[in-house]
Design goal:
60s Ribosomal Protein L30, Chain: A, 3 domains, six-stranded parallel beta sheet, 11 helices, alpha/beta, four-stranded mixed beta sheet, Rossmann fold, globular, single chain
Length: about 425
């Protein structure tokens, strides 16, 4: 199987993902490697994206099995796949993780740009989105998460509903352009895949994202100013989120005349905000005609769990359905390790492993409550002897005749009895 290190496939999933790819096709005419995947025939027919895969309506698990081989063939020759779509609906919440597993199982670097639902869309969609996001972050090398509520400033807005979703789509488009552009940087000033993973490969992390575009003699200052106004770069009560990060990805895209002086100036301004301890990784993608606008993208994250790039994808454990909707995922390959990659066109095994974890429920399927383990009782500590632990090999700290390296309750002979239970 031959792969092109520079070939990327951008996959728009569900209505939101297909809309973003249509916007991308208009923004960057002639861009290749776009693939629309949806179970909404009207949405696919209206899309201007050339390559499309229609998922049969009905059970999403069965629909995925039908398109599995076709999707594998669409990835042939690529080295990176970027999935894009909205979470919360059953189509995107199921297909995005399922397609990520399929892409990762063939050895591709797999990334995702996803939007979380607005709070007015309801708790069910939010719960569905959070479970799907958890799986995506386990599978993918990097995930950009766009919180729609955060886009609106975290408070009710008078903006029309259509405008709110348009803002969400435009932000997803910008994140897709940022990720694709960072993967395209080359030469002495570039961002590597390892850099992207270090920032966006932390499960549970909060994504911080800003972008701006400007032209003219003051283009860099104006683009940075617009990027810094993004609500996704703010933390409630803490100011700029960049102060809470350890690494920032900065991408500059535009004309061939982007100078090192401009790059140095923008890095200096960001360092003033983020602090000297924050590492800034810079990528420059300067291939546009002279006079074209300068685009500036900032990506960072805070929180989450640091992990190494996944070399093994473990099978997803069976679990309970969410509510009355049974969402199943074809059983993935039990263990996929480097050097043991299956054929790209080989379909995944059929199975009934369920995708989302069970909701907490004190009653089992049989109606019986689970057995409760007996409470453990705290005993009395023996104070006759003690050890100095890591201080055994060092000189004791003596003050007024007492060894301060020994805990006070041991030095004083205070007995710690278990609390009385009523």
């Amino acid at each position: 199987m031959n792969t092109n290190p520079s070939r990327r496939i951008l996959v728009g999933v569900g209505n939101a993902g297909v809309t973003v790819l249509d916007m991308l096709s208009v923004e960057v005419p002639g861009m290749t490697g776009l693939l629309a995947v949806n179970n909404d025939r009207d949405s696919l027919n209206a899309s201007i994206v050339r390559d499309k895969i229609e998922v049969p309506e009905g059970d999403p698990g069965e629909g995925f099995r039908v398109i599995d081989d076709e999707f594998g063939q669409a990835l042939d020759g690529a080295s990176v796949v970027i999935l894009c779509g909205g979470l919360g609906g059953e189509t995107g919440s199921f297909l995005l993780p399922a397609l990520a597993i399929r892409a990762k199982s063939t050895g591709l670097t797999t990334m995702a740009c996803v939007g979380m639902p607005f709070s007015f869309e309801g708790k069910h969609r939010r719960d569905l989105a959070e479970r799907a996001l958890e799986k995506l972050q386990e599978i993918c090398d990097a995930v950009i998460v766009i919180g729609n509520d955060q886009l609106s400033g975290g408070s009710p807005s008078t903006a029309a509903v259509g405008e709110a979703f348009l803002l969400s789509d435009r932000t997803l488009l910008a994140s897709l352009l940022a990720l694709s552009g960072m993967l395209s940087t080359s030469g002495p000033v570039k961002i590597t895949r390892a850099d992207i993973h270090n920032v966006l490969g932390k499960p549970g992390a909060l994504t911080h994202f800003g972008f701006g575009k400007a032209e003219g003699s003051n283009r860099l200052h104006e683009a940075l100013e617009r990027a810094m106004k993004s609500p996704l770069l703010a933390l409630p009560g803490k100011g700029s989120a960049l102060k809470e990060t350890s690494m920032i990805l900065l991408l500059l895209r535009g004309a061939k005349d982007i100078s090192f002086a401009e790059v140095q100036a923008v890095v200096g301004k960001i360092e003033q905000i983020a602090g000297d301890n924050c590492q800034i990784k810079v990528g420059v993608h300067a291939d546009g005609p002279l006079g074209s606008p300068l685009e500036l993208y900032l990506l960072a994250s805070s929180g989450g769990t640091v992990r190494k790039p996944a070399k093994t994808i473990e099978s997803i454990e069976p679990s309970e359905p969410i509510g009355s909707n049974r969402i199943t995922l074809p059983q993935p390959i039990k263990s996929i390790r480097e050097g043991e990659m299956p054929s790209r066109r080989a379909p995944l095994e059929k199975g009934a492993d369920e995708f989302f974890p069970a909701l907490t429920n004190p009653t089992s399927k049989s109606g019986m409550k689970p057995a409760v383990s007996p409470k453990q009782m705290q005993g009395t500590l023996a104070l006759d002897t003690y050890q100095r632990g890591r201080f055994d090999k060092s000189e004791p700290t003596i003050f007024e005749g007492e060894d301060l390296d020994v805990p006070t309750f041991l030095r004083k002979g205070i007995k710690l009895n278990p609390p009385s239970r009523k």
